[in-house]
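Worked problem 6 (solution included).
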Amino acid sequence: MPKPPRKVYTFKTLKSERGWPYSRQAHAPPDQGRTIPATEKGPGGALNIWTEDQIDDYYASALTSGAY
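Solution. The predicted structure is:
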């Protein structure tokens, strides 16, 4: 059985659907020691996107480290 397609987020949908707390300029404050997942390029190469797996992993690691 084929895997279902991964949900992808642009910055705008990441903020509205997942409650992303950071601005475009300051995704994760460096004093908190967190780094955001690297983006992939969407169709046409102009749009930065994150996959649902990347965001889920980021939130999970931030919660287990007590940083979020």
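Discussion: The chain has a mean pLDDT of 77.
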